[in-house]
Amino acid sequence: MVAYVTVIDVVSLQNPALPLEHTTDIFSTMANLCRCMIEDPEINQKFEKPTTVMFVLRVMVGAIILYDHVHPAGAFYRKSNIDIKSSIKLLKDHPSSSVETLLNA
Prior knowledge:
- The chain is mainly alpha-helical.
- Helices cover 70% and strands 0% of the residues.
- Helix 2 runs antiparallel to helix 4 (50-70).
- The chain starts with a helix and ends with a helix.
- The model has no long low-confidence stretch (mean pLDDT 85).
């Protein structure tokens, strides 16, 4: 919640000339990049620690949540810039038990 309030403060209050689309584009790009990093076996095998994969998944979920709060239509809108179906499938198919908390975030 603190991150959401901070983003709104920076975008709306401190930088009113900054278009909201720039902020949502950053969040959607981060979420999609994180998903692609985990889905691509060539990139995924370069992670030396399993905790790195969990970190990338957390960043993906955080970017989706922030996008959902900041974008007027939200992240689950059909025409959203985030591939939500693939992101949720990635989380559901991940073997780690700690992914459950990310699905409930």
